[in-house]
Amino acid sequence: MELLDILLSASFWAAAIRIASPLIFATIGELICERAGVLNLGIEGIMVAGAFAGWISVWAGLPLWGGVAVALIVGMAFGLLHSVLSVPFGLSQHVVGVGITLLATSVTFYTYRVVLPEVSSPPKIEAFQPFEIPLFSDIPLLGPALFSQTPLTYAAFVMAGLTAFVLFRTPLGLAVRAAGENPSAVAAQGLSVTAIRMGAVIVGSGLMAVGGAFLTMSAFDSFFFDMVGGRGWICIALVVFGAWRPGKALLGAILFAAFDALQIRVQQASLGTVIPYQIFLMMPYVLSILALVLMSRSAQVPAALMVPFNKGTR
Amino acid sequence: MSALETGAERADPVLRMQGITKRFGSVTANEDISFSLHKGEVIALLGENGAGKTTLMNILFGQYSADKGVVEAFGTPLPAGAPRAALDAGVGMVHQHFTLADNLTVWENIALGTQELGAFSLRPARVKAKTRDLSARFHLTVDPDARVGALTVGERQRVEILKALYREAKVLILDEPTAVLTPQETDALFATLREAISMGLSIVFISHKLHEVMAIAHRVLVLRHGRLVAEREIGDTNAEELASIMVGGEVRAPEVPALPAGPALLTLTGATAGVLQDVDLTLNAGQITGIAGVSGNGQGALSDLISGVLTLQSGEMQIAGQTPTHWDARTAIAHGVGRIPEDRHKAGTIADFDLTENAILETYQTDFSRAGWMDWTKARRHTEHLIQTYDVRCPGPDTPIRLLSGGNMQKLILGRVLEENPQIIVANQPVRGLDIGAVNYVHSRLAAARESGSAILLISEDLDEIMKLSDKIHVISEGRLSPAFLRGALSVAEIGKWMAGQGFAHAS
Amino acid sequence: MRLEPISQPSLQRRLLPPTLAILASFAIAALLAQIAGGNPFAVFDLIFKGALGSKFALLETLNRATPLIFTGLAVAVAFRAKLWNIGAEAQLYAGAVITVVLGTGALAWPAPVLLPTLAIGAALAGAIVLLIPAMLKTRFGVDEVVTTLLFNFIFLLFVSYLLEGPLKDPMGMGWPKSARLIPEARLPRIVEGLRLHWGFALALICAVVVWVIDRKTTLGFEMRAVGQNPEAAAFAGIPVAKVILKTALLSGGLAAMGGFSEVAGLKGSLTLDLSPGFGYTGIVVAMLALLNPLGVVAAALFVAIIFVGADSMSRAIGVPTYLADIMLASALLLMVLAILFTKFRVRRD
Hints:
Helix content of chain A: 55-70%
Number of strands of chain C: 2
CATH class of chain A: Mainly Alpha
Helix content of chain C: over 70%
Shape of chain C: globular
Number of helices of chain C: 13
Largest sheet of chain A: none
Strand content of chain C: under 5%
Strand order of the largest sheet of chain C: 1-2
Number of domains of chain A: 1
Order of helices and strands of chain C: EHHHHHHHHHHHHHE
Oligomer: heterotrimer
Radius of gyration of chain C: 21 Å
Shape of chain A: globular
CATH topology of chain A: ABC transporter involved in vitamin B12 uptake, BtuC
Structural class of chain A: mainly alpha
Largest interface: A-C, 51 and 48 residues
CATH architecture of chain A: Orthogonal Bundle
Distance between the termini of chain A: 67 Å
Strand content of chain A: under 5%
């Protein structure tokens, strides 16, 4: 009964949507990269960099949306670096991605120490506040859960919809999907595979960084070193779970976040005294692995994912 | 476009290539090639593999830029290395390896790259309507909403042609378009091409099949070793002359004298595995058994099955009268099966391994190691022996194999197989992509193995190769195998019917 | 742009790009040090003095290099077979956990018996930790990069649970910390009075053993074949899945030996901060070594110099130690690019 009470409470679903938001941004970002044929393992580090960049910009005086823009640009810069190495030079996407994560993380921590050398605890900012959408927020259960969130959460949903539209309804999206399936089809039609793939990685990386920024600017109001804590890797699992479709990925992120919100509540409730809290904290990672195993038989993976394209190699 | 509008002047070419030269490192792929194409004309580009046909067309189409020379379409020079410019000028290419995305629909593949990337809609209705219209006009039946991954090879080629027509191509380049077709499908393609010519299109037809060239072309250009060695009006030449120009007086193919069939070394009875269905096959000692068919009809599964890469789902396989209890690649090798794989780059060799490592890939455990320790001295000696015996041209056994030409790579694989004195040899497309010298070398080695009593399975999509070398022939279609026919028992047309699956309907 | 393979690269062709990559990573670090207000020359001077300037510093550097040799070998072995093991961190902790479980009194054996037992036990534990993602790869085709990464988080939480529960030191005043190893379970120092333990020697031995496996045994041949072209390896009859699993056992075992060496040689007990990311740094070490097992030793020493030196530099002039991490991450990226340029040249077409 306790479980049912939790599942029927608006605050539970509001929390789930809040937890899902950064995952939605980053998952959509990763999805765009993978649809074009590039696995972006820089995601974890780019989220760290985005979390820091957005937060520190606001701390330094920029408006909140200005901070989001800075995070976006920082993410795109790391995306540019990733794409130069992985697309025209065709280097191992595994190694480049891990390298980008190490680089983005260490640059972030270094900058933090340089900008804030003496602080013992990081300063707080005025984070995004919930914005109740008139009328909709009055709907029972759904209203408080979906329509009393911060603007950045709404942006995450809009971004997922926009990505689906661009991917499946526009010539640009068609080119991206073709680049991930058979790059020579793109080249034969006179389009540049290199430009399309690089563009996808840059845009996708920007979204990952905004996902990171959500943590410091909407979910919390400050920056901690381990705050991303593997969310990037979870998003990679979510892309697979969502079968490379933005809509399914969005639902996957919400489902996943709901599990996460649930484990927090169960942990606080009676069970938490019996089961070690570490078991609960493991759940997101275990669930991600399970999702990967479950979806492993589906054949929807873009055929040219992780396959570099070199025209005219003899 | 000006030339087209003043169209009556036959003298103005729609396409002109002048003094094209292209080198890759030290290899000259094209040397000073010039030709022009006129409205309503079909020219055939004839030449062996590696003669420079594909490079020339890739330059024309802007995939490569030439070191020297100019390309003009309708009197306007095309900028080098810009496929977009070639497409915009009305040059369309139908690639040998289709450039289609399997997870997209037919109309999406056709629309790809034809619209402004900044546009907000794909206008599916318009694309589909125009596609249907073109389908009807050129007899290229295909459902615009079908997913390309679900289409047959013939249908995919239609999509490939439709892509070019959709862009209003006035010049069509077809690179080895019949390699993947049955004789009947080839006839249908030719009908479409004739239709296109009557509508004022011009065609460059790349092939090494002489009878097709004689059937469709008005004019023939013959390339050899990157040079244009002859240009003939079709009425002034014949297949024999073209053949001798094409190969340039090099050694002819080996003769295969008739031999009495030896004992059955391998039999398949009702074998079902992968796409193979209920296949009966006997390989006799001292015979070459040829498998004819359009690629992708189960040849891979058949070769994988005998090679030990695929296992039987039902039916029986006997090796020299015995049924092996367990079947994998190592067991196959141990039972004396020599395997020449279809793709020497993907399955036959490891690109960054040197010749020695590649030479012992199948035998390192049995012959070149003891208790888990490699004997590199012995391995190297063995490789040097192979290099000598099989005439592998290379700097030495320590060279990475990726630096070898296709012919030399294949010679090493051939040596690796033949040195083990295999009872049974599976040769899947053993000469694909080789020049005529290497082709003859491989064929004469296979013929010699046959004479010394090996049972050879020769799989090829080149019907001429099958008919020339095989003692008996099966045709494969959609995973089914025809009965065996002795050499010369079937005409090309009859084989074509089997390839299209018609014989099976009568048989079953 | 087109990449054209170079048929016989000259010595210069093979050495120049990697050298430039290392120099460029120094240049990036210099620039960042400048931004943080440190004179680059002073920074590098302090780094090298801090790592090599005294006997104490040198031994500290060798001690720091020890776990990096283990994780570097683990990654090199796996990457050679294209098994993307990013989970050396978890495997290292697995080795440390077994060392503590067996070495705090459970086995009261004399050192010559106990130490090899602990080392083998640790290696087995690490091997099993990597075997799970490796089996998910061979059975279900699940990308092992993501699973090994996720396992790092899972395993660290597991260690956290152990240190607050079953393995908690009753004398630990409430800190999440294990009991101390018994004296017989401690790796002795190589030279009495010098702070360098036998773990370093063990690491060197492992490097040689891995090199021998790679060059001289059928297993090494199989691992390289599977890594370079699994399809051709399978066609030739090499049991690809089995080889991947063997590689996983070897790789996981090596990383876990690093955990054993850290606990038994240096720390004496297990805490949650046993490894400041040795598993991840092992990737940098392996790539800088071009995946060569002997090169791993040199690369681990180089990386240890940067880390130890950066700590000392940071204490002296306040440029953050993360400078070292940036330098190594950029060295990793530049090195993979440099390797490309040793084999290919860029051509316009």
